[in-house]
Amino acid sequence: MSVGMSNCGPLGWMSDERGYRYTPTHPETGRPWPPLPDALLQLWNKVADYPQPPEACLINYYGPDAKMGLHQDRDEEDLAAPVVSVSFGDSCLFRVGGLKRGDSTRSFRLNSGDVLVLGGGARLAFHGVDRIYPGTSTLLAEGGRINVTMRRVRRAVESRPETRVEVCQDR
Q: Can you say how many angstroms the Cα of residue 80 is from the centroid of all Cα atoms in its chain?
């Protein structure tokens, strides 16, 4: 991967020789990831159309030559929850396809401030970043793009109401 990564939220996504997974602590410091900022939680509540909050927020930094090949976000248990992504900094050419790697794709530009939601039938769509357009934003002094991607990882535990019988009688 040509992308720098970090995380915030209760869980962080990581990759090493053991594979991809979510962990509650930073692999080098052993400390919990920083909390999700309130502004991101508010955005999730506004656009996700999902009753549970995100548990992980992957923060990717794309330099001027960075790319990310077509992939699916499928490391989560709760695939009913959408993936909500926000772009900051330089624009990128984003590509999205179908549920199979060989499906046809379409590309469009994502600019700073754009929000993308992959949910419902598109939750497992293959997607990636084909290129960065350097110099399209002055947000980052050195240029590049930051993308934050919020996800619900674990299935919510369904609460079962306690069994209760009530009798109401007029006296």
A: 13
